[in-house]
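Private note to self, pasted from the team thread so I don't lose it. Backbone tokens:
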């Protein structure tokens, strides 16, 4: 299991990527700024949710359950931020 610091850095990295893509989308499509800012707000809320989950495993004294918790959390991180990227792509494709 990787340490908690690395997991939190991964969460922050994913957030930075979403925010950067949103900023670029705003530069190219200023008419859709409100929708894009909403995606950014969702990303920040998702980041906060993941940080809360990372800091509070269900059974902190049972190593097996902690590993499963963090493995599930990593999958949730990938799925959550991928969904935000897809949402941003859908906004950019709409005319």
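Design output:
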């Amino acid at each position: 299991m990787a340490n908690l610091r690395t997991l939190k850095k991964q969460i922050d990295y994913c957030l930075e990527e979403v925010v950067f893509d949103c900023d670029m989308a705003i530069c190219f499509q200023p008419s859709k700024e409100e929708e894009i800012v909403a995606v950014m707000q969702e990303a920040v809320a998702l980041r906060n949710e993941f940080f809360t989950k990372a800091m509070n495993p269900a059974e902190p004294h049972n190593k097996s359950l902690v590993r499963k918790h963090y493995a599930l959390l990593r999958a949730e991180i990938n799925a959550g931020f991928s969904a935000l990227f897809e949402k941003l792509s859908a906004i950019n494709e709409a005319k």
